[in-house]
Design goal:
This protein has 161 residues and is mainly alpha-helical. It has 6 helices and 3 strands; from the N terminus they run H-H-H-E-E-E-H-H-H. The protein has a 3-stranded antiparallel β-sheet with strand order 1-2-3. Strand 1 and strand 2 form a beta hairpin. The N and C termini lie far apart (59 Å). 11% of the residues are buried.
Length: 161
């Protein structure tokens, strides 16, 4: 039997929750990714397979044709129609081992990539006024006055503070 202490229930935030946390409207990333996955599933794979003599060019919007060279695809069985879901790799960037993403995973990846230094800088700018004290801006090693009995800590650190 499994001990209650050894089992954990882990819940992750949904795509919509992550959009809201990033300050985006619900569906900002989720809906375009859903549309992309639906168009690829139907236009690139399902319809060409179920219509003899037809190819993806007959069903897929031309704006998505470039993905056949930029990404790789895998199929995963599922219980909902059309009984499979596609997994898309990240764009080919010379990586030997590709990562493949389901629809939600890809949306979460894109939202996560939205964090950049300018975004973090903008969010943290209001904190700048809290740290106007010059002592707070010195490197961490110089803020503490430990008395070590070996070099280089034999010098007087008070002059640095």
């Amino acid at each position: 039997s499994v001990s209650p202490r050894s089992s954990y229930l882990v819940e992750t935030y949904s795509v919509a929750d992550r959009e809201v946390m990033m300050g985006l409207p619900r569906g900002y990333v989720e809906l375009p990714i859903k549309k992309l996955y639906d168009e690829l599933t139907n236009g690139a794979f399902l319809l060409p397979e179920t219509n003899p003599g037809k190819t993806y060019r007959d069903f897929l919007p031309t704006g998505l044709w470039h993905l056949r060279k930029k990404c790789r695809f895998k199929f995963k069985p599922c219980t909902d129609a059309p009984l499979f879901q596609i997994l898309i790799s990240s764009p080919l960037e010379g990586k030997a081992d590709l990562d493949y993403y389901s629809r939600d995973q890809y949306a979460k990846r894109l939202i996560g990539n939205g964090w950049s230094l300018p975004v973090v800088e903008h969010i943290m700018e209001p904190l700048r006024d809290l740290y106007r004290d010059k002592k707070m801006l010195k490197p961490c090693g110089y803020r503490w006055t430990y008395s070590y009995r070996w070099a280089p800590f034999l010098q007087n650190l008070d002059s640095l503070m």
